[in-house]
Write a structure and sequence with these properties.
By secondary structure, this protein is α/β, with parallel strands linked by helices. It has eight helices and ten strands. It is globular and about 50 Å long.
Protein backbone atom coordinates (compact mmCIF):
# COMPACT_ATOMS: atom_id res chain seq x y z
CA UNK A 1 0.00 0.00 0.00
CA UNK A 2 1.39 3.40 -0.95
CA UNK A 3 1.84 5.95 1.82
CA UNK A 4 -0.25 9.10 1.39
CA UNK A 5 1.06 12.65 1.66
CA UNK A 6 -1.08 15.17 3.54
CA UNK A 7 -0.19 18.87 3.73
CA UNK A 8 -1.62 21.23 6.33
CA UNK A 9 -2.74 24.44 4.61
CA UNK A 10 -4.54 27.62 5.57
CA UNK A 11 -5.69 28.92 2.18
CA UNK A 12 -6.90 27.87 -1.27
CA UNK A 13 -3.51 29.00 -2.61
CA UNK A 14 -1.82 26.59 -0.21
CA UNK A 15 -4.14 23.83 -1.37
CA UNK A 16 -3.17 24.51 -4.99
CA UNK A 17 0.52 24.36 -4.07
CA UNK A 18 -0.06 21.05 -2.29
CA UNK A 19 -2.09 19.66 -5.17
CA UNK A 20 0.44 20.65 -7.81
CA UNK A 21 3.29 19.29 -5.68
CA UNK A 22 1.75 15.83 -5.55
CA UNK A 23 -0.06 15.80 -2.20
CA UNK A 24 -2.91 13.33 -1.89
CA UNK A 25 -5.01 15.57 0.35
CA UNK A 26 -4.82 18.62 2.61
CA UNK A 27 -5.82 19.37 6.14
CA UNK A 28 -7.45 22.81 6.14
CA UNK A 29 -7.41 25.12 9.14
CA UNK A 30 -6.74 28.67 10.23
CA UNK A 31 -4.41 29.75 13.02
CA UNK A 32 -1.78 27.14 12.22
CA UNK A 33 0.58 28.87 14.63
CA UNK A 34 -1.94 28.03 17.39
CA UNK A 35 -2.12 24.38 16.43
CA UNK A 36 -4.98 25.04 14.02
CA UNK A 37 -8.60 26.17 14.38
CA UNK A 38 -11.82 25.60 12.42
CA UNK A 39 -11.80 27.25 8.96
CA UNK A 40 -14.69 29.40 7.77
CA UNK A 41 -17.41 28.15 5.45
CA UNK A 42 -16.10 30.33 2.62
CA UNK A 43 -12.57 29.04 3.09
CA UNK A 44 -13.77 25.45 2.92
CA UNK A 45 -15.82 26.19 -0.20
CA UNK A 46 -12.93 27.92 -1.97
CA UNK A 47 -10.52 25.14 -1.08
CA UNK A 48 -12.97 22.50 -2.30
CA UNK A 49 -12.95 24.26 -5.67
CA UNK A 50 -9.22 23.52 -6.08
CA UNK A 51 -10.07 19.85 -6.56
CA UNK A 52 -7.83 18.32 -3.90
CA UNK A 53 -9.63 16.50 -1.08
CA UNK A 54 -9.66 18.75 1.98
CA UNK A 55 -10.16 17.56 5.54
CA UNK A 56 -11.22 20.43 7.75
CA UNK A 57 -9.91 20.73 11.28
CA UNK A 58 -12.73 21.27 13.76
CA UNK A 59 -11.30 22.91 16.88
CA UNK A 60 -13.21 25.82 18.34
CA UNK A 61 -10.40 27.34 20.39
CA UNK A 62 -6.69 26.99 21.17
CA UNK A 63 -5.50 25.45 24.39
CA UNK A 64 -6.30 22.00 25.72
CA UNK A 65 -8.76 19.40 24.49
CA UNK A 66 -11.21 19.16 27.39
CA UNK A 67 -14.42 20.87 26.34
CA UNK A 68 -17.66 21.93 28.01
CA UNK A 69 -21.12 21.19 26.65
CA UNK A 70 -21.40 24.45 24.72
CA UNK A 71 -18.05 23.90 23.01
CA UNK A 72 -18.95 20.33 22.07
CA UNK A 73 -22.29 21.48 20.63
CA UNK A 74 -20.53 24.16 18.60
CA UNK A 75 -17.98 21.71 17.20
CA UNK A 76 -20.66 19.18 16.26
CA UNK A 77 -22.34 21.99 14.36
CA UNK A 78 -19.04 22.96 12.74
CA UNK A 79 -18.54 19.34 11.65
CA UNK A 80 -21.80 19.47 9.74
CA UNK A 81 -21.09 22.92 8.30
CA UNK A 82 -17.64 22.15 6.89
CA UNK A 83 -18.83 18.91 5.33
CA UNK A 84 -21.81 20.63 3.71
CA UNK A 85 -19.35 23.21 2.39
CA UNK A 86 -17.33 20.60 0.51
CA UNK A 87 -14.85 19.09 2.96
CA UNK A 88 -14.07 15.43 2.31
CA UNK A 89 -13.56 14.79 5.99
CA UNK A 90 -13.09 16.32 9.41
CA UNK A 91 -10.27 16.26 11.94
CA UNK A 92 -11.50 16.22 15.54
CA UNK A 93 -10.54 15.28 19.08
CA UNK A 94 -11.47 15.62 22.74
CA UNK A 95 -10.13 14.40 26.05
CA UNK A 96 -11.55 13.94 29.53
CA UNK A 97 -9.94 15.73 32.47
CA UNK A 98 -8.05 12.52 33.34
CA UNK A 99 -6.42 12.62 29.87
CA UNK A 100 -8.34 9.65 28.51
CA UNK A 101 -10.18 9.91 25.22
CA UNK A 102 -13.62 11.52 25.48
CA UNK A 103 -15.36 8.72 23.63
CA UNK A 104 -18.82 10.25 24.00
CA UNK A 105 -17.61 13.43 22.29
CA UNK A 106 -15.92 11.46 19.50
CA UNK A 107 -19.06 9.44 18.87
CA UNK A 108 -21.01 12.69 18.71
CA UNK A 109 -18.61 14.09 16.11
CA UNK A 110 -18.69 10.90 14.05
CA UNK A 111 -22.49 10.86 14.15
CA UNK A 112 -22.58 14.51 13.04
CA UNK A 113 -20.19 13.78 10.16
CA UNK A 114 -22.02 10.71 8.93
CA UNK A 115 -25.35 12.53 9.15
CA UNK A 116 -24.07 14.70 6.31
CA UNK A 117 -22.19 12.06 4.35
CA UNK A 118 -21.95 8.33 4.94
CA UNK A 119 -18.51 8.47 3.34
CA UNK A 120 -17.10 11.35 5.38
CA UNK A 121 -13.68 10.52 6.77
CA UNK A 122 -13.05 11.32 10.43
CA UNK A 123 -9.52 11.76 11.77
CA UNK A 124 -8.55 11.92 15.44
CA UNK A 125 -6.07 14.80 15.71
CA UNK A 126 -3.09 15.23 18.00
CA UNK A 127 -5.23 15.30 21.10
CA UNK A 128 -4.05 11.67 21.11
CA UNK A 129 -0.54 12.94 21.87
CA UNK A 130 -1.84 14.65 25.02
CA UNK A 131 -3.53 11.47 26.21
CA UNK A 132 -2.08 9.62 29.19
CA UNK A 133 -1.42 6.58 26.97
CA UNK A 134 -1.37 7.26 23.20
CA UNK A 135 -0.95 3.57 22.34
CA UNK A 136 -3.95 2.48 24.41
CA UNK A 137 -5.93 5.37 22.92
CA UNK A 138 -5.07 4.23 19.40
CA UNK A 139 -6.41 0.79 20.28
CA UNK A 140 -9.82 2.30 21.12
CA UNK A 141 -10.46 4.32 17.99
CA UNK A 142 -11.66 1.52 15.72
CA UNK A 143 -14.72 1.05 17.93
CA UNK A 144 -15.60 4.73 17.48
CA UNK A 145 -15.88 4.63 13.69
CA UNK A 146 -12.81 6.76 13.01
CA UNK A 147 -10.87 6.62 9.76
CA UNK A 148 -7.38 7.56 11.00
CA UNK A 149 -5.27 9.00 13.78
CA UNK A 150 -2.78 11.86 13.36
CA UNK A 151 0.06 11.52 15.85
CA UNK A 152 3.60 12.39 16.83
CA UNK A 153 3.74 9.36 19.08
CA UNK A 154 3.22 11.55 22.13
CA UNK A 155 6.52 13.36 21.47
CA UNK A 156 7.30 16.92 20.48
CA UNK A 157 7.83 15.75 16.90
CA UNK A 158 6.96 12.66 14.88
CA UNK A 159 10.63 11.73 14.27
CA UNK A 160 11.22 11.79 18.03
CA UNK A 161 8.12 9.64 18.61
CA UNK A 162 8.77 7.12 15.83
CA UNK A 163 9.09 4.11 18.13
CA UNK A 164 5.74 4.87 19.78
CA UNK A 165 4.13 5.54 16.39
CA UNK A 166 5.13 2.02 15.32
CA UNK A 167 3.39 0.63 18.41
CA UNK A 168 0.31 2.73 17.63
CA UNK A 169 0.20 1.29 14.11
CA UNK A 170 0.00 -2.18 15.62
CA UNK A 171 -2.60 -1.15 18.20
CA UNK A 172 -4.90 0.73 15.81
CA UNK A 173 -5.91 -2.30 13.75
CA UNK A 174 -7.93 -1.22 10.70
CA UNK A 175 -7.63 2.49 11.54
CA UNK A 176 -4.94 4.32 9.59
CA UNK A 177 -2.13 5.98 11.52
CA UNK A 178 -0.65 9.18 10.08
CA UNK A 179 2.64 10.61 11.36
CA UNK A 180 2.78 14.38 11.79
CA UNK A 181 4.44 17.22 13.75
CA UNK A 182 7.85 18.64 12.99
CA UNK A 183 8.20 16.50 9.88
CA UNK A 184 10.76 17.48 7.24
CA UNK A 185 11.23 15.76 3.89
CA UNK A 186 14.39 14.09 5.18
CA UNK A 187 12.33 12.44 7.93
CA UNK A 188 9.85 10.80 5.59
CA UNK A 189 11.64 7.51 4.96
CA UNK A 190 12.16 6.78 8.67
CA UNK A 191 8.49 7.49 9.36
CA UNK A 192 7.36 5.24 6.51
CA UNK A 193 9.38 2.46 8.16
CA UNK A 194 7.04 2.64 11.20
CA UNK A 195 4.22 1.31 9.05
CA UNK A 196 2.12 4.48 8.86
CA UNK A 197 -0.50 4.93 6.16
CA UNK A 198 0.31 8.62 5.66
CA UNK A 199 2.77 11.38 6.47
CA UNK A 200 1.57 14.89 7.40
CA UNK A 201 3.53 18.12 7.28
CA UNK A 202 2.80 21.83 7.03
CA UNK A 203 5.55 22.55 4.46
CA UNK A 204 5.43 26.19 5.43
CA UNK A 205 7.87 29.06 5.12
CA UNK A 206 7.71 32.56 6.58
CA UNK A 207 6.99 35.58 4.40
CA UNK A 208 7.84 39.10 5.45
CA UNK A 209 5.08 41.68 5.80
CA UNK A 210 6.89 45.01 5.92
CA UNK A 211 3.69 46.96 5.37
CA UNK A 212 2.60 45.77 8.81
CA UNK A 213 4.85 48.41 10.32
CA UNK A 214 5.81 46.22 13.25
CA UNK A 215 2.57 46.89 15.08
CA UNK A 216 1.27 43.57 16.44
CA UNK A 217 -2.43 42.80 16.12
CA UNK A 218 -2.47 40.44 19.08
CA UNK A 219 -0.30 38.41 21.43
CA UNK A 220 0.34 35.76 18.78
CA UNK A 221 1.32 38.25 16.07
CA UNK A 222 4.97 39.27 15.72
CA UNK A 223 3.97 42.14 13.46
CA UNK A 224 6.28 41.21 10.61
CA UNK A 225 5.64 37.75 9.10
CA UNK A 226 3.08 35.18 8.08
CA UNK A 227 3.49 31.72 6.57
CA UNK A 228 2.71 30.19 3.19
CA UNK A 229 2.95 26.68 1.76
CA UNK A 230 6.38 26.15 0.18
CA UNK A 231 6.21 24.23 -3.13
CA UNK A 232 9.82 23.07 -2.73
CA UNK A 233 9.05 21.36 0.57
CA UNK A 234 5.93 19.70 -0.81
CA UNK A 235 7.87 18.44 -3.84
CA UNK A 236 10.70 17.15 -1.66
CA UNK A 237 8.27 15.25 0.58
CA UNK A 238 6.57 13.76 -2.48
CA UNK A 239 9.95 12.74 -3.92
CA UNK A 240 10.93 11.12 -0.62
CA UNK A 241 7.74 9.05 -0.60
CA UNK A 242 8.14 8.07 -4.24
CA UNK A 243 11.77 7.09 -3.70
CA UNK A 244 10.84 5.03 -0.68
CA UNK A 245 8.14 3.29 -2.65
Amino acid sequence: MSVALEIAVTSPTGALVARDGGADRVELCVGLELGGLTPSQALVEATHETGIPAHALVRCRPGGFTYDDDELALMAREVRTVLRSGAAGVVVGALRPDRTLDEDALRRFVEAARSVSAHAEVTLHRAVDHAADPVATAARVADLGLTRVLTSGGAASAPAGAATIARMVEAAGPVQVMAGAGVRPEDVRALVATGVAAVHLSAKRPVGAPEHGGVPMGSGDDGSTYTVTDPRVVAAARAALDTDG
